[in-house]
Amino acid sequence: HPTQKPEKLIAKLILASSKSGDFVFDPFFGSGTTCVVAKKLNRKFSGVEQEPEYCQMAVKRLNRAESDRAIQGYHDGYFWERNSLADQKQVKGTKNETQTIVGLFDERYS
């Protein structure tokens, strides 16, 4: 049953395939990562899990998502890679955020 998936990965999938208010279904609910991320991204959700202990874990995570909507590696509509805090601060302090982000992308990955 242990198949860990980071919220950031699930967020990319949900954002690429749905809009706010859409319905997300997870037929292999596990600890609820997909539904937690769906909730944080303002999607309706449902899931199926046969193991009671995983269901209990998922309920706790969904309750925490009520007050903590943060998704590690995703902020203000942008996905960030590890060790990029300096770049994030640089972008936040600029007037034209999109231009700076494109510049960062071009420098790093070209």
TrEMBL record:
Keywords for this entry?
Answer: Methyltransferase, Transferase
On whether Ribonucleoprotein is a keyword of this UniProt record, the answer is no
SUPFAM superfamilies per the UniProt record, alphabetical: S-adenosyl-L-methionine-dependent methyltransferases (SSF53335)
Keyword Transferase present in the record's keywords: the answer is yes
- Can you supply a Gene Ontology BP term from the record? methylation
Give start and end of each DNA methylase N-4/N-6 domain: 1-60
Name of the protein in its database record: DNA methylase N-4/N-6 domain protein
